[in-house]
Design goal:
This protein is 54% helix and 0% strand. By secondary structure, it is an all-alpha fold. The protein folds into two domains: 91 residues, 434 Repressor (Amino-terminal Domain); 35 residues. The radius of gyration is 24 Å and the shape is extended.
Length: 154
């Protein structure tokens, strides 16, 4: 019997491929685990700011410019700590944080349990394309059935 040579250059369709991530959210939930929604949001805000690689002063300045009113480093510090559970980031400031960091995981992660998703716009077009393909497939099946009945084949 001939021994089969391994082909290291060819991907195995079922083991070497992962579908692309479409939804925007934190993949590692252990990094944002908290006892309640407010604490979880604080942890996510802290993660997004840390991973942005930009100082909180610079983030505050850019968010202020985006909103048209002041956001201070102290505010960002308060939003990022679980100790101040009564002081969560507002939706307007969360949107400003997304605009400045280009990281929408805070919003996407909180929408996921509600059955909703945040997707990049380029992926939205792909999802719409798939929906149109499915609708076209169903319309063609209906047209084929009507044709079969018209010709007396069904």
């Amino acid at each position: 019997m001939v021994k089969r040579r391994e082909d290291g250059g060819t991907l195995d369709l079922f083991t070497d491929w992962e579908p692309p991530k479409v939804g925007v959210q934190f993949e590692d939930k252990s990094r944002i685990r908290a006892s309640n929604v407010a604490a979880r949001i604080s942890r996510m805000v802290a993660e997004v700011m840390r991973e942005s690689g930009v100082s909180r002063e610079e983030l505050a300045s850019a968010m202020s410019a985006f909103l048209g009113h002041p956001v201070s480093k102290a505010m960002l510090d308060a939003y990022a700590t679980q100790a101040r559970g009564d002081h969560n980031i507002s939706l307007a400031r969360a949107i400003a944080l997304v605009a400045v960091t280009k990281d929408a995981r805070v919003i996407g992660t909180e929408l996921d349990p509600l059955g909703l998703a945040v997707v990049p716009k380029r992926d939205l077009h792909g999802l719409r394309h798939l929906a149109w393909q499915e609708r076209t497939r169903k319309a063609q099946a209906m047209a084929d059935a009507e044709y079969q009945m018209w010709k007396g084949l069904a």
